[in-house]
């Protein structure tokens, strides 16, 4: 299978918009995981690796099990994302629509389970929530990585920020227009800010909002025309 971006160009405005919506949803859910699930990330695995390193000093009170659960679930989600790409990548509309729709369903299920009290966001039951959310964003990260250019990763923005500065006219001067990079940074920050504000009222609502946004993005990709054969 050739590069998917050649078959379904992410340069199209609707696709860029859909990926920015997913970046916003990442900020929403990481606000939930960090502020309500015991200082752990479900989309940013770099943070979890650092937390594990810092946890060797018990006095800091940093979690050990939660980051491990998040990372294991993330890896499983990423594995599924790679498998979907392998078997459905030649049909981008079905692949992307299915992957993101599956993520939206899992997010919605998590919101329902939390909202009905089946799962709690405190104590041991929170590990199940962390696992479900980590799986969702492993799937998202793997799918987007196989689809999009490096400035639209939707989950990790270190490379985006590096490219924005190092390749700018003040740096190497080799970068293209930075609009998408800046938009990614703003979308993530805005999602985290909105998530933090809404968490003062509802945790379920924040996860549910993320599910709705990802479902909208899935719909856009699902309705995209299939590329011509060959």
TrEMBL record:
Membrane spanning residue stretches: 14-33, 64-84, 96-119, 125-144, 182-199, 205-224
- Please provide the record's keywords in A-Z order: Membrane, Transmembrane, Transmembrane helix
Q: InterPro entries per the record?
A: DUF1275 (IPR010699)
What domain of life does the native source organism fall in? Bacteria
Instruction: Mention any Pfam family matching this sequence.
Output: DUF1275
Protein's recorded name: YoaK family protein
Source species = Streptomyces hebeiensis
Lineage of the organism? Bacteria, Bacillati, Actinomycetota, Actinomycetes, Kitasatosporales
């Amino acid at each position: 299978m050739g590069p998917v971006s050649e078959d379904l160009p992410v340069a199209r405005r609707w696709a860029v918009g859909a990926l920015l919506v997913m970046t916003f949803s990442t900020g929403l859910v990481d606000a939930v995981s960090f502020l309500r699930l015991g200082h752990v990330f479900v989309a940013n695995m770099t943070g979890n690796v650092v937390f594990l390193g810092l946890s060797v000093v018990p006095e800091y009170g940093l979690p050990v099990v939660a980051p491990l659960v998040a990372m294991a679930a993330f890896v499983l989600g990423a594995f599924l994302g790679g498998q979907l790409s392998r078997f459905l990548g030649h049909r981008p509309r079905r692949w992307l629509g299915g992957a993101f729709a599956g993520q939206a369903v899992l997010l919605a299920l998590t919101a329902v389970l939390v909202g009905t009290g089946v799962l709690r966001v405190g104590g041991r039951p929170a590990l199940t929530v962390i696992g479900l959310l980590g799986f969702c964003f492993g799937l998202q990260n793997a799918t987007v990585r196989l689809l999009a250019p490096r400035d639209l990763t939707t989950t990790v923005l270190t490379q985006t920020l590096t490219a924005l500065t190092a390749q700018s006219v003040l740096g190497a001067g080799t970068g293209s227009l930075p609009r998408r990079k800046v938009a990614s940074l703003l979308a993530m920050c805005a999602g985290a800010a909105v998530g933090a504000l809404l968490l003062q009222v509802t945790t379920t609502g924040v996860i549910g909002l993320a599910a709705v946004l990802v479902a909208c993005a899935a719909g856009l990709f699902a309705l995209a025309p299939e590329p011509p054969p060959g």
